[in-house]
UniProtKB/TrEMBL annotation:
<keyword id="KW-0238">DNA-binding</keyword>
<dbReference type="InterPro" id="IPR000835">
    <property type="entry name" value="HTH_MarR-typ"/>
</dbReference>
<protein>
    <submittedName>
        <fullName>MarR family transcriptional regulator</fullName>
    </submittedName>
</protein>
<dbReference type="InterPro" id="IPR036390">
    <property type="entry name" value="WH_DNA-bd_sf"/>
</dbReference>
<dbReference type="Pfam" id="PF01047">
    <property type="entry name" value="MarR"/>
</dbReference>
<dbReference type="InterPro" id="IPR039422">
    <property type="entry name" value="MarR/SlyA-like"/>
</dbReference>
<dbReference type="InterPro" id="IPR023187">
    <property type="entry name" value="Tscrpt_reg_MarR-type_CS"/>
</dbReference>
<keyword id="KW-0805">Transcription regulation</keyword>
<feature type="domain" description="HTH marR-type">
    <location>
        <begin position="10"/>
        <end position="140"/>
    </location>
</feature>
<keyword id="KW-0804">Transcription</keyword>
<dbReference type="InterPro" id="IPR036388">
    <property type="entry name" value="WH-like_DNA-bd_sf"/>
</dbReference>
Amino acid sequence: MATSPADPLTLEVVELIGTVVARYHQEYEEAAAAHALTGAQARVLGLLTLEPTPMRKIATKLRCEPSNVTGIIDRLETRGLVERRPDPADRRVKVAAPTAEGLATARRLRESLRFAREPLGELTDVERTLLRDLLKRMLGEDAQV
């Protein structure tokens, strides 16, 4: 059953999503600042904890220009949080990777984010799984993990 983009329930859900996103971004920026990072630096550092990544791929994931990522990586590297390495798959390409201090900083940053974690902790596993699957569906991703 299709819904109208202006039906009251859809409007309420859109408004709630906007509120959640705004609160998350506000807390994320505050947590980043507490670790002397910008929000963009914190996002890049968090992304790099998943795997060493070429700067072009970071730019694609963050939807920004590669030159912006280069500047962010330069600042993180100066602080000793990130290092550049040759990509094992293609030695002509450099990947950015977190240092031990970068991993520790990213962990402390994640631990300081209470907004999403605390309310999600109040949901059951079934509710969190349903929420995850619905969000993935909204994003057009396969909900099966």
